[in-house]
Amino acid sequence: MKKFIFPLLILLLAVSCKTRNVAEKPISATTPLESPAVFFNKIKEKTAFEQLKINSKITVETGAFIPPLDATIYIEKDQKVWINMIAIFLNVGRGIATPEGIKGYEKWNKTYIESDFTYLNNLLNVNFIDYNSFQDLLLGRTFIPVNSTDFQVTKNAQGFTVKSIKNLQFKTDGKVSAYMATLDYNENADLAKVALQKADAPDYLEVSYGNWENFNNIRLPKNVKIVIKGSKNSQILIENTKFDDSKMQTPYSVPENYTKTEIK
Hints:
single chain; about 260 residues; mainly beta; 16-stranded mixed beta sheet; signal; DUF4292; DUF4292 domain-containing protein
């Protein structure tokens, strides 16, 4: 088990999508949503809110035993994501993400991290996650760039499938990584699944969303599942049990005598 799991725990919300085998056809303009331009604008919309508090139950599967966790996730739009984790009534970790980077500590091994988003990208086997894409990922919004030039949209019985027609290239610190991407949406254009396959490596990331509901005139997923495949495989399931829009305090400080985990 990795010594520090905060970034992964912040990310995921569970319910896997069933494999389906249905006929697809190119998108048409028979309804406003099915107009390609309108569709791409729709799936790139940002969630309208000021703050959001989420109570969640988290299950982590890494091959090593990790007890089920209860978490409070608090998001101030475009400013911060804060999480507090409890296992068997004991606080086991806390973390915060801002546009500048991430910080977090865990009590099992008495370690902490302070980093830009390199650490999170390494855990997810990608290289393009920043604060904005991280926030979108948490909220079930489209968290990778999509446009009509690089993707093809098809209509099927479940909704819509968006597939990249060429490798998507992301450049970070002078290093370019390429991915093929497939995104599934339901009839309401709610995101159902994002699958990213690295072009020159077995690294694979899948994020699935389910059980969408309306809260204060915005659409939010109650369940998300993140599957990570590479040199090591892992997945995290989070069930969101309650949404709240009240403000809350988000204290964060590393306890004394904790060891910093270096980012490799």
